[in-house]
C-alpha cells in the first residue's frame, strides 16, 4: 500500500507541471505554477485535485467559510469535497470555477407504465459562495416525459417524445426526440428537479397525435421486440453541456447510463469572494488581492470579486508576497528571443547583438549592419537637419489642426451626447468599444467604392469592408446629421452597446472623427429574409418550411430578448423582413436599430412620433402614438404572414382588397380561404398542426387590440413547440378545397384590424377559429 501511495504522489508531482489535455474548456490554471499555492503548513492538493488558496484543506487554511475543502484520505486516490458528509466530490478548481461530481435524477417505470422507482437530485449552494454556471444545461433523456428544474420563482424544462413508427430512427441530436436540452436561469445557487409523465389522455386530441407512444406502449418504439430492450427510466441532470454527447439509441438501451453520466459530466460552479465588488471591498476592509495583481468584479448578481495576476506576473494573487515576475528569458518557447534577452518587471526586452539590427524576436530577424551605409547616413544628416526641423514644425502644426478638426467632428456627430447617454442609460463606456480611425475604414472599403455597397436606406449607406486582420465587416455611413437625426444616430449607438444576443447584429465600433459618422457592424453574409422570400429570380435558394419556422423562432427570440431580457426594455419599432439578415447557416439576425426606443423602467409604453414601414405599422400605434412592445408583435405578425404566403406586405398590383397583406391574410382566415393564399410549397412541407397553429398565431399577432396580442416571449415559446412537431404533412395534390375548413370551426371570436392601402375606410373584421386553440398545438 505504501508503494502505491508513493507512486500516486510521484504521478501527481509530474501531472501538475503539464497541461490538462483532456479538458474541453479554455480555462487557465495559472495558480498551479505558484510557489505559494497554499497557506504555510497547509496541504495544496487532495489526491489529483489541486487546492489553491483562497481554498484550503484543514483548519484556518482557507480565506473563510465556503472555501474549506475536506479531504477524505481513506480512499485511493483521496477524495476532495465540501464537507465530510458531502455527496459531491470536487473534480477541479480553477481561477473562477469548480467542477464537482454529478448525480442524475430519474424516474423509472414497470412494463405496464406504473412508476416503480426514481431519484431526485436537488443541490443547494445557497449558503456557499457559488452559483451554477451558464455552461451547464438541463438535459433530459427518455420517452414522453417532461422534466424541469425550479429555483426561487424561475424554472426551465423540456419535453422528450418517442414515436410508434418503426422507421423512425433516434438520431444523435438532442433536439426533443428521446433527448432534449434547455438553458438554466441566470445566477441560481440551487435547483429542484421534477418529472411529469405524459399519458395518452393528454397526448391525443381527436386522434391527431396518435403516433406518439405512451408508457405502456414503449416496447413498440423503433421496432423493438420486447419492453426489456429499452431503458425503463427517464433521466434528468444539470451539467457541463460540452462534456455530454447524446448517442441516440445506444444511450436509450444503456441501463448503466446514470453511472456513465455521473462519471463524465460534472456540474460547473462559479465562485467569488464575498458579496462586495472591488470598490466596495477596498473601501471597507481592503480586498484580498496582493501585490502585482488586480481585482476583477464577479459577473453574478450577488456580487463578489476575484483576483488575477498582472500581465507578466504569475503566482497566487491571494497570498503574500503576491504574484511574482515571470523571467521571460528562461522560457524561450513562450517568449522567443534570438538576440540579447533582458528580463524587466512584467516584461522583457530582446535586442539584436552588437553589429546587427532588426527584430530579434523573429528567427533570422537580425541582419549585419553595413558601416559604409552608416557613414553615408551620418554625413547626409547634417544638411537636412534644418530642413527636418522646419518639416517637424510644419507637420506638428498640421497635426494639431487635424486633431482640433476631429474633435470638432466628434462633438458635431454627438460624441459628447453619446458619452452622457452611456452614463445615464447604465451602458458601458465608450472606451470599451473599438474606435476606428477613418483611414482604416477607407482602406477597408477601397475608399468607399461603389462596388462595395451592400444596401441603401433612409438612414444611410452600408458598405462591405475588410479590416487588416481579414475580418469582414459592414460599415454604415450615415447621412449628414441635423439635430434631429443626431439623436436617432446616438439612439442606435446606445441601444446596440447594451445588446448581446446571438440573433442580433453585433456593433463592433464606430468612427466619429469625420463629418459623416460611421458605424462598424459584424458582416452577415447571406442577404435579407425579404430577398430570400420575394426575389427567387436573383439566384437565392428557396427557403424550406423548416428553415422558415426556425428563422421565425430565432427572430421572435431576439425580439423577446429586447423586450424582457436586455438591460432596459427595447422596442425595435421597425420589424420587417428586410431588417432580418441571414448568415451562411441561415441563422436569423435582427438589424437596424435606428428607429428603436428604450422604455424607461416602471413603464410599459412611450409616447413618440409615429415611425415605421408601410405594411408593417401597428394600427393602434398609428392612431394613438402610444408605442408598446405589442407594436413589434404586430409587425412580426406581418413577417409571419410573409413566410406563410410568400407575398409582399404591400403590392399595388393586387386588387384593392388584397393590396395590404395583413388585411388579405385575416380575411382569408375568416372566410376559410387560406389555402388560396398560402405558398404551395409551404403547404406541402408543413405538418397539419404546424400550419394551423402558425396561421392562428399570425392572426393573434395582428389583433386590433394590443392587449389581446401575445407577448414576444409567448410567440417564441409557441414557435419553439411547433418546431418539435414531426408528422405527416398534408398531401395537397389530393386535398380538396373544402378540406381547408379543418383549419376553422365556428366558436371563439377574435377582433382583427384591417389596414387599408388607401386610407378611405375604417374596417374591422372578425373570424372564427375554435378548432385552432393552444391545446391543439401544445403537448
UniProtKB/TrEMBL annotation:
This is Uncharacterized protein. It comes from Arctium lappa.
